[in-house]
Design brief:
The chain is built from 26 helices and 24 strands. With 799 residues, it is of the alpha+beta class. It has a 6-stranded antiparallel beta barrel with strand order 9-10-16-13-12-17. The chain has a 6-stranded mixed beta sheet with strand order 4-5-3-6-7-8, sandwiched between helices. Strand 7, helix 22 and strand 8 form a beta-alpha-beta unit. The longest helix has 21 residues. It binds guanosine-5'-triphosphate. It is found in: Cytoplasm. It catalyses: GTP + H2O = GDP + phosphate + H(+).
Length: 799
């Protein structure tokens, strides 16, 4: 099909992805990389092979002999056989007066395959027999059945071991690839080294426990800028996307068949994914299996705990991300809201001028802020938050005592405080936070909402959702385990916190009681230095970073300072408590009047039955505008109409709420059941007078953390999570947004680019929305929506 052809041809030329190696040039360089043992083998075995060839009346150059020895792992017999085959072929081919181009084994097998298709297997000069038997003496043809792989994506012919480029040449390639990687590192922006598992960071290694099971995005470094795709008509983007979904896999070659002999019992086989060089961009199965983010989604389903559902026994009715299919019949097409008559509010609106009231009462209001707690798994986030709630009186000591008793019975006594936050059975069983927990507490001067994010890498999407709702970040770092955190989620969370727009951060240098010696001031200083460096490199302003030593477990320097003498004397002299650091920042989180005057926007982060009085309630953070009781609203993309029956802020009823506040909105509608069916987590609740656009693609200006190519991605906008594709790399831009290069073939880590992203489901989006692009459980880049694309046409769910 021509469409297949076009999409396949978007692939890079081999020369775009591999350095061209002049083998004559390569040898001297690569020799330098040969081990002494290799060099000794060459020295002793080359004359042996030459003598055997001589006996057969044949000659070969040193280079040819050494290539053969290398490729056959010093096997003299096979090397001689190979060279005899070459020489014999030349003789048969016409006496060798004219130097004939030697075909690679791959080319020969391909030719045989073509010949077989045309009716015969015998090649000119070489009796290849059946391809399976032809490879019988090659080690990888005896791969145990249980681990025989499937060739599941189209492969590019790489420089081969059995012909074409030699292994020596591969060494030269490798050397040049390293040089290229070093060049990339040098030219990338200052953020380059913050790549999440990016090329050079990766080389430093991650701890095995944080290593992804299967790394699926490998991009060989290139020496030169790729040439534009030569044979292609200019792709029509939309078609291109649709066509990319169909099966693009080339039929396996004879070599491929040999390598991937299909097993009669595929379940026993491990799938050997032969990823092509566009990542999995052309793999039609890219979203067929559960991604780490899918796992999260399932975990969300199993542990419905966000927001008030964590603390109240409310029955969640959220669908969508919880996996309940929506009735397509009941869905509206986008853009029909204008034709629908607004819901008659069952509660009369007072038609207040909320912006005016809010501005006039600013001086009398207590500062309030929401903070997200981030950091590596087990660094003590939940325990610290449990401590904060206990010490500020938001949780009673008797509750902690009960948790301690229950936790002790389960052999998890040390998690008693964490259980204040980790309320689901799943979380308590595993000792790991899965979803975002939300709690409120007040200090003498400010009101706070805690969003406790999971530290585990599988739950990063939940962390993104939580951080998107926060004003402040609290980064919890185990003072004794900084390294594990920096290799793991400490680094990733910091980057994501910036990516979603957080500007202020308090670093709780935790578990100081467990330091050796306890409360070691030098340890605090060195950890602080490292973390401050990470934060400033990620884009946090020095003035917006506060570092506090503390112990969540015993409460030192959390709500109250520790003893002013002894081991903790230095703390009281040189540091503030965690709470006072938060209070400082809470005072500076006032909502701008500009965002108050915008149209109402609230991304729905939970949907639940609050009570029989409130059969459907939603919660989330108001990102723009104001809302008041009685106000008609529209939920996009389904265009469902409803009106506001009641509003809660921090579990207390209020008459109105404004941008920046975390709220629960109790809704009413003419058909509640229809509303329940059609509203999902990630939807946008909007003012009916100006609902948000719903699109199928958008342009984002992003910073890439890993090399970015066109291909399947997961798009995260706050709590919204959609499958999609980076369809075109439009241009590389500088920090000021100026064009550096149009239509790059790849966006290297640390560079900024304008990229077109197409989504597979309806996306309610605004220009300026923060976007995080992930794939295969890794964060590829983040930025903001700089342009909305085509209007979504189809069922609102996009399913
Ligand atoms: N010594 C000491 N141990 C602590 C401290 N804070 C937490 N811990 C212990 O560290 C372990 C992990 O604590 P959690 O609070 O569950 O860690 P977390 O960061 O919330 O973990 P996730 O929710 O899975 O990301 C538990 O055994 C805690 O008792 C502390 O200040 N000092």
């Amino acid at each position: 099909m021509s469409g297949h052809r076009r999409v396949k041809d978007i692939d890079y030329d081999e020369e775009d992805l591999y350095d061209e190696v002049n083998e004559d040039d390569a040898e001297p360089d690569t020799q330098a990389e040969l081990t002494p043992e290799d060099q000794a083998n060459f020295a002793t075995l080359t004359p042996v092979v030459r003598a055997e060839l001589h006996e057969a009346g044949l000659q070969a150059s040193d280079r040819e002999i050494q290539d053969a020895l290398w490729n056959y792992y010093w096997d003299v017999g096979k090397s001689v056989g190979y060279l005899r085959g070459l020489r014999g072929k030349k003789v048969n081919g016409g006496g060798g007066a004219k130097k004939e181009k030697v075909k690679s084994k791959f080319e020969e097998v391909e030719e045989e395959r073509a010949r077989k298709a045309a009716g015969g297997w015998t090649s000119a000069g070489l009796d290849l027999g059946q391809p399976e038997s032809w490879f019988h003496d090659v080690t990888w043809s005896h791969v145990p059945e249980a681990i025989v792989g499937d060739l599941i994506t189209p492969t590019k012919r790489r420089p081969s071991m059995l012909g074409g480029s030699s292994k020596l040449a591969k060494l030269a390639e490798e050397r040049k690839r390293k040089a290229e990687a070093a060049k990339v590192a040098a030219t990338a922006s200052s953020l380059d080294h913050l790549t999440l598992d990016g090329t050079h960071e990766q080389s430093k290694g991650r701890s095995p426990d944080t290593q992804p099971a299967a790394k699926t995005r490998n991009y060989p470094a290139r020496r030169k800028e790729p040439s534009p795709p030569p044979k292609l008509p200019e792709p029509e983007p939309e078609q291109e996307v649709k066509e990319a979904i169909s099966d693009l896999r080339a039929p396996p070659t004879a070599f491929g068949h040999t390598l991937s002999r299909s097993s009669r019992n595929p379940d026993q086989r491990q799938t050997l994914q032969v990823h092509n060089l566009l990542g999995s961009s052309t793999s039609p199965d890219a979203f067929s299996g559960p991604s780490p983010d899918d796992i999260v989604t399932r975990a969300q389903g199993a542990s419905r705990s966000l927001n008030n559902t964590k603390s109240k026994p409310q029955k969640s009715i959220a669908n969508g991300v919880n996996g309940l299919p929506k009735s397509v019949d009941a869905l509206h097409l986008n853009g029909t809201s204008a034709e629908q008559s607004p819901v008659q509010p069952k509660v009369k609106s007072k038609n207040m001028d909320v912006t005016k009231i809010w501005t006039e009462t600013a001086a009398t209001r207590r500062p309030a802020a929401a903070f997200v707690v981030i950091g590596h798994v087990d660094h003590g986030k939940s325990t610290l938050m449990g401590r904060l709630l206990l010490d500020t009186g938001a949780v009673h000591q008797r509750d902690i005592d009960r948790f301690r008793k229950e936790a002790t019975e389960q052999g998890k006594a040390s998690f008693a405080l964490a259980w204040v936050m980790d309320t689901s059975a799943d979380e308590r069983e595993r000792g790991v936070t899965v979803d975002i927990a939300q709690h409120h507490f007040s200090t003498d001067t400010a009101d706070f909402t805690i969003l406790d994010a999971p530290g585990h890498r599988d739950f990063v999407p939940n962390m993104i959702g939580g951080a998107s709702m926060a004003d402040i970040g609290v980064l919890v770092v185990d003072a004794n385990q900084l390294e594990s955190g920096l290799k793991g989620q400490t680094r990733e969370h910091v980057l994501l916190a910036r990516a979603v727009g957080l500007e202020r951060i308090v670093v709780a240098v935790n578990k100081m009681d467990g330091a050796v010696p306890a409360w070691d001031q030098h340890l605090f200083r060195s950890v602080s230095e490292e973390v401050r460096k990470l934060l400033t490199e990620t884009g946090f302003d020095r003035d917006n970073i506060k570092l506090v030593p503390c112990s969540g477990l015993n409460g030192d320097n959390v709500a109250t300072p520790p003893a002013a003498s002894g081991l903790t004397a230095w703390v009281t002299q040189s540091s503030q408590t965690l709470i006072s650091a938060l209070e400082d920042f809470a005072g500076s989180t006032a909502t701008s009047s500009e965002s108050l005057n915008n149209h109402l926007r609230l991304q729905i982060t939970d949907i639940f039955h609050a009570s029989s009085q409130h059969p459907i309630s939603v919660s989330g953070r108001i990102s723009a505008g104001t809302v008041q009781i009685g106000e008609p609203i529209t939920i996009m993309p389904s265009s469902e109409l409803a009106s506001i029956k009641a509003i809660d802020v921090a579990d207390s009823p209020v008459e109105y709420a404004v941008a920046g506040q975390l709220v629960t909105l109790h809704l009413t509608a003419d058909d509640i059941e229809q509303l329940e069916r059609n509203v999902r987590i990630g939807d946008m609740l909007c003012s009916s007078s100006s609902p948000i656009e719903v699109v199928s693609d958008f342009t984002t200006t992003l910073l890439s953390y890993q090399p970015l190519l066109p291909g399947p991605v997961e798009v995260h906008i706050g709590r919204l999570q959609l499958p999609g594709r980076t369809t075109s790399l439009l241009e590389l831009v500088d920090a000021a947004g100026g064009t550096v290069k149009r239509k790059p073939r790849i966006v290297k880590a640390g560079l900024r680019a304008k990229v077109k992203v197409t989504v597979d489901r309806a996306l309610p989006g605004d220009e300026g929305d923060r976007v995080v692009i992930r794939a295969d459980g890794e964060t590829l880049g983040s930025g903001t929506i700089s342009g909305l694309g085509e209007r979504w046409i189809g069922a609102a769910s996009g399913n």
